[in-house]
Amino acid sequence: MTTAGQIVGLLERRVGLSARAVGDRMIESALARRMKELGTTDADDYARRLAGDARELDCLVEAVVVAETWFYRYPESFKHLAQMAIARKPVPSPARPFRVLCAPCSTGEEPYSVAMTLFSTGLAPDAFRVDATDVSTRAVGVARAGRYGRNSFRGADPYPRDGFFTEAGDGFAIRDEVRKVVFFRTANLTDPHCLANEQPYDAIFCRNLLIYLTDAARRTVVATLDRLLAPGGVMYMGHAEPLGLIDPRFRPELPPQAFAFSRTASTIVRMAETIRRPFDGPAFLPPVTVPQIRPGPRTPAPSTKTADFPPPAPLDPVLSRARAAADAGNVAEAAAICAHVLRELGPSADALALRGIVNGMAGRPADAEADFTRALYLDPGHYDALVHMMILAQNRGDVAAAANYRRRAGRAARREEQS
């Protein structure tokens, strides 16, 4: 095996990274930075050091895993989360807090966005808990410090910054009241025993991780997330991660720009029969008493009123029936409804994309790809069809096609956010 192959193998075993998905250029750049830092130009010598130095391997992982993030990225996800938390009032309480996991959490912008969103719905600080993990000790250190430059506030910023931040030099610092409700630690989701003693979470954010993993690591992570998600819980993924195609136990939620997934009805029934057991494991981190948040004098306190988020628009009623049938595991019924719509109403991108999803659930990838292709002929910017085509291309090893579909899906998502 070549030296490069040995190093890639170490990365795959450590964090499940797929060299093909991450890209040779990114790995080579990370290697060059680490070797320069250590003052060596001998790749063989560096590979030997990696094999016996767990700390250096972690440094290389951190150099490769450079996650780009900012506050309230994918704003529809946070609106969806707020609606979910509001719908469950007055259930969240100190005895049964609303639990959210962010993994990987990168440098903390996402979990702090979650906390600020929940504060803005009127939840008291002891009525919810945000846990956050990342494989990078450096990223976790930055997150715990809670100090951010202006680049962390790029894009749409629909939430008031002053109520949760104080100015700190050229940037901003998270106020202590917010920092105290977010609990950070290092953890590796590709470890099957990751967070093994945790109580279930009502919501899990797992952005832009699955697309960079090997197939085996992806299966492990999805199994871990499934174990950690409470019945009725929601998972928030990245824009290029159609969890419903990766694992048919999950279905997408509305609106599409929330990139939210919940279990199908049949899966929830099976779960309810198997997870009724007492929890006797340790807490994620020692509990702390958190004071009621009190904004500074320059800004009003976060509103305790119900957030005014518009309800998601319903799907076409007939296609809604098809989706409901698919969610219940009635693939044949769902396929029949899609066929009826296409026969009676003519071709439509939405109907073809939904039938493609149904064909994927039925184990007919060729038929699924044909449907997604036709959907894209009718609507070249159809988000669902693009992301499913990306996964199909990735599964057959067509890296160039997968990258092309990923770029197109990203553009489609941005257009939908701006519309």
From TrEMBL:
<dbReference type="InterPro" id="IPR000780">
    <property type="entry name" value="CheR_MeTrfase"/>
</dbReference>
<dbReference type="InterPro" id="IPR029063">
    <property type="entry name" value="SAM-dependent_MTases_sf"/>
</dbReference>
<dbReference type="InterPro" id="IPR050903">
    <property type="entry name" value="Bact_Chemotaxis_MeTrfase"/>
</dbReference>
<protein>
    <recommendedName>
        <fullName>protein-glutamate O-methyltransferase</fullName>
        <ecNumber>2.1.1.80</ecNumber>
    </recommendedName>
</protein>
<dbReference type="GO" id="GO:0008983">
    <property type="term" value="F:protein-glutamate O-methyltransferase activity"/>
</dbReference>
<dbReference type="GO" id="GO:0032259">
    <property type="term" value="P:methylation"/>
</dbReference>
<feature type="domain" description="CheR-type methyltransferase">
    <location>
        <begin position="1"/>
        <end position="274"/>
    </location>
</feature>
<dbReference type="Pfam" id="PF01739">
    <property type="entry name" value="CheR"/>
</dbReference>
<feature type="region of interest" description="Disordered">
    <location>
        <begin position="286"/>
        <end position="312"/>
    </location>
</feature>
<keyword id="KW-0808">Transferase</keyword>
<keyword id="KW-0949">S-adenosyl-L-methionine</keyword>
<dbReference type="InterPro" id="IPR019734">
    <property type="entry name" value="TPR_rpt"/>
</dbReference>
<keyword id="KW-0489">Methyltransferase</keyword>
<dbReference type="InterPro" id="IPR036804">
    <property type="entry name" value="CheR_N_sf"/>
</dbReference>
<dbReference type="InterPro" id="IPR011990">
    <property type="entry name" value="TPR-like_helical_dom_sf"/>
</dbReference>
<dbReference type="InterPro" id="IPR022642">
    <property type="entry name" value="CheR_C"/>
</dbReference>
